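To whoever is on call:

I kicked off a structure prediction for a single chain this morning and the downstream step that reads the tokens threw a length-mismatch warning. I double-checked the sequence; it's 242 residues and nothing unusual in it as far as I can see. Pasting both halves so you can look.
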Amino acid sequence: MKLHANNITVCHNHINIIENISLILERGQVLGLIGPNGCGKSTLMKALIDSVSKVGSVNLVKNNQEKSNQIDSLTFGFVPEEPILYDYLSVISNFQLTSVSKGIQGNFSEIVNLIRILSLEHLTTRKTRSLSQGEKKRLAIGLSLIGNPDVMIFDEPHNGLDVDGIAILKKIIRIKAKDHIIILCSHYFSEIGSLCNQILLLDQGKAIVYDSLESQITQYQSIENLFNIQIYKSNNEADIAF
């Protein structure tokens, strides 16, 4: 299985938010998506799941047969930075309604297992609006996993999570990475370094670096150095004066 994103461009008010982004990701690859605020990271992720208008294509090579421009042939799980939930429904009802919206029925055992994995057992009857930020993020992660999607996309998934939640998230990514495609957007370079094997650095909507993480670490010694040198053109603390 391969995901091909070809020359993805998203324009708003005649301004390119992202411009000519191309990716080829294979099963087992985890792409770390980094860049300064406003560089187009979230827009790119939304373009991949076809939730914003775009120029370009997202194709899937599956079972050695290419299915061009058939986004429905590829299943996505997406965790946005701000969870989108059914606030006035219970946790269990969120799972059930999301399953139906994905065309999945009779998956009660899957729902129970996801609730267990995310440690949400004590919250199943609670209204979503009453959950803490971290509990809502755990729920959003669980909902994204329904149906075992081919591609998992995480936009700042650690935000709001406590230590236990972060540990659970890392386990999920490591397990899914064995036979899925994963895209992880994070400002935490340690998270990118420990979980990813590919890296994409965006700046002003353009791909500045798209390479294996190992190659970039060899060249720059750390993701922080890569970021500072490529984005700020400097890695010298003396440039900051008070």
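Update from on-call: the warning came from a stale cache, not from the record. Cleared it. Sanity check on the structure: The chain has eight helices and ten strands.
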